[in-house]
Write a structure and sequence with these properties.
With 96 residues, this protein is of the alpha+beta class. It has 1 helix and 7 strands; from the N terminus they run E-H-E-E-E-E-E-E.
């Protein structure tokens, strides 16, 4: 279920989004949970082509995308077709 005021978008729209440089305001515990989920979601995406829901904040507000994660590094999450979401702008990652 989506959080209030969150728009579910197709991954193809991510390329046109703008992301502020400053990280979203979440706790250190939430940040650690996101990194754990990144490993799990990447493994799931590469081995089983399983999707996850990434909720993030761009310059307009909260958005979510249901997609597979191909890879990530400390700064970016890389999706299919080279779409990128900055890790610092991620609110949560949910794996069904």
């Amino acid at each position: 279920m989506l959080a209030p005021n969150t728009t579910l978008i197709p991954k193809e729209l991510i390329a046109g989004l703008r992301f502020p440089k400053q990280p979203v305001s979440i706790t250190e515990e939430q940040r650690k949970a996101i990194h754990v989920k990144l490993f799990e979601a990447t493994r799931l995406g590469n081995s089983e082509h399983g999707k996850c829901r990434i909720t993030f904040h761009d310059d307009e507000g909260m958005k979510a995308v249901e997609t597979t994660i191909w890879t990530f590094d400390p700064d970016n999450i890389v999706l299919k077709y080279g779409m990128v979401i900055p890790v610092a702008r991620v609110i949560s990652i949910e794996i069904p």
